[in-house]
């Protein structure tokens, strides 16, 4: 396998069993994608902890101080950048600026550990915030990956989805993604619409039914007439909404931004007045009030407020995602505090998303075992999720399916076949329409299991 390099990214795939070519020595050198902000935060954290413990052990003062200075320099790189960006681009003194001034003041006072701690914890908070943003971007990228990029026309030519116009027909083969929203004009298949509706069980689609871009055609051939352009598809709108939600800050974060816009200049102005005006009035030494002004800056630095918000939001969203709960952003997380009750509109929201056999109701003297033997025998020919659940149940119960022949799939209803065990008797499995067509009384069937619907069983 030859070494491959993608110039648009800072990563490379290298085969460990291949020798680099002498003529391609540059291409054999992999790029390493380094997150400098994270790396410098790690260095700052390790240096602060090292300095703290060395100080407890009464280690050499120079070594302890050096460890703290390493923390200040490594953790302060991006804080200084943020302060400079606020001054040059946003034209106001932000929280980063106040942290820088407070840290410099602490250094001036000889409180090196405090300066290192302020810088490290603030850079750690920003690292957490970046982590949350990157996590959101990965979630959005996963959604974008499901967006189809090409479509296959009826003549077999493959074109970009942006080139397909309303009214054109495309073909969607089994296992392919539906490229655009449209109406089925030919074919029959089960389509997995989980990306759009959240429903875990595929829906049967036939002529006249609507299909959505980004959904998976599972087992049949479909021809679809396009009704919406790519930019107006349901999936595109979902992607746009998620992207918009990610750009929105939580109300608390917006408050901090507004707070910092006024708070930081006021604190800096008070410190300047304290160090210059007060000595003129009282006649005290300038150095005394300069020290007090710097103490004011250190104390006034709102690290707890700035650190707690992104950490709390990131932790909450991350913890929820591990439990399968996806929250679009901090704004919606904060709205959850107002929730008193939650109403679910479908049982699939509260289940594993996989159907299984919960009850067997026998009629006309047949046993439950006989029903499963015949049903499993018929469902061996089908790939429908309900068929899989019946087969899984029969295997779990140790019941062997009956041998069937001459199976016939009945579109949108079920299937039928001849049982070779039950004296060549024809059996069918499917919905009530199929039952009624085969002289089975659906009234009797409906009487018994009606209460099962009340228990979310279908």
What would you note in describing this structure?
Helix 2 crosses helix 4, helix 4 runs antiparallel to helix 6 (234-247) and helix 7 packs antiparallel against helix 8. Strands 4-3-5-11-6-9 form a 6-stranded antiparallel sheet, with no helix packed on it. A 3-stranded antiparallel sheet has the order 8-7-10, with no helix packed on it. A 3-stranded antiparallel sheet has the order 12-13-14. It has 15 helices and 14 strands. With 458 residues, the protein is α+β, with helices and mostly antiparallel strands. The protein has 4 domains: 1-30, no CATH class; 34-146 and 249-342, no CATH class; 150-241, Calcium-transporting ATPase, cytoplasmic transduction domain A; 368-454, Calcium-transporting ATPase, cytoplasmic domain N, CATH 3.40.1110.10.
């Amino acid at each position: 396998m030859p070494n491959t390099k993608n110039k648009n990214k800072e990563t490379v795939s290298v085969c460990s069993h291949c020798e680099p070519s002498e003529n391609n020595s540059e291409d054999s050198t992999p790029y390493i994608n380094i997150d400098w902000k994270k790396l410098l935060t790690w260095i700052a954290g390790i240096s602060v902890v090292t300095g703290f413990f060395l100080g407890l052990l009464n280690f050499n003062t120079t070594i302890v101080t050096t460890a703290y200075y390493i923390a200040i320099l490594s953790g302060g790189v991006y804080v200084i950048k943020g302060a400079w960006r606020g001054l040059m681009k946003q034209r106001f003194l932000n929280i980063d600026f106040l942290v820088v001034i407070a840290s410099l003041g602490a250094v001036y006072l000889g409180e090196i550990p405090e300066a290192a701690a302020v810088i490290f914890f603030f850079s750690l908070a920003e690292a957490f915030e970046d982590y949350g943003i990157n996590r959101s971007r990965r979630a959005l990228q996963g959604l974008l990956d499901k967006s189809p990029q090409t479509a296959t026309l009826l003549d077999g030519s493959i074109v970009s989805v942006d080139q397909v116009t309303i009214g054109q027909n495309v073909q969607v083969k089994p296992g392919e993604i539906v490229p655009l929203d449209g109406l089925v004009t030919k074919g029959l298949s089960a389509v997995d619409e989980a990306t759009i509706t959240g429903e875990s069980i595929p829906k049967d689609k036939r002529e006249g039914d609507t299909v959505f871009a980004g959904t998976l055609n599972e087992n049949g051939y479909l021809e679809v007439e396009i009704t919406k352009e790519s930019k107006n598809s349901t999936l595109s709108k979902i992607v746009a909404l998620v992207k918009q939600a990610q750009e929105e800050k939580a109300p608390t974060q917006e408050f901090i931004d507004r707070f910092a816009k006024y708070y930081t200049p006021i604190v800096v102005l008070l410190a300047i007045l304290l160090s210059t005006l007060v000595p003129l009035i009282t006649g005290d030494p300038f150095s005394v009030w300069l020290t007090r002004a710097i103490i004011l800056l250190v104390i006034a630095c709102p690290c707890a407020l700035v650190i707690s918000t992104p950490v709390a939001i990131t932790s909450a969203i991350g913890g929820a995602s591990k439990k399968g709960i996806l929250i679009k952003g901090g704004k919606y997380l904060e709205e959850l505090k107002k929730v008193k009750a939650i109403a679910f509109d479908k049982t699939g929201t509260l289940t594993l998303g996989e159907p299984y056999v919960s009850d067997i109701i026998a009629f006309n003297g047949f046993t439950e075992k006989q029903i499963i033997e015949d049903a499993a025998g018929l469902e061996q020919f089908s790939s429908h999720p309900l068929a899989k659940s019946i087969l899984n149940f029969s295997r779990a119960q140790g019941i062997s399916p009956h041998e069937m022949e001459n199976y016939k799939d009945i579109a949108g209803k079920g299937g039928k076949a001849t049982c070779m065990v039950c004296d060549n008797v024809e059996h069918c499995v499917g919905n009530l329409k199929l039952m009624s067509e085969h002289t089975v009384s659906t009234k009797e069937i409906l009487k018994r299991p009606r209460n099962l619907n009340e228990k979310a069983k279908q």
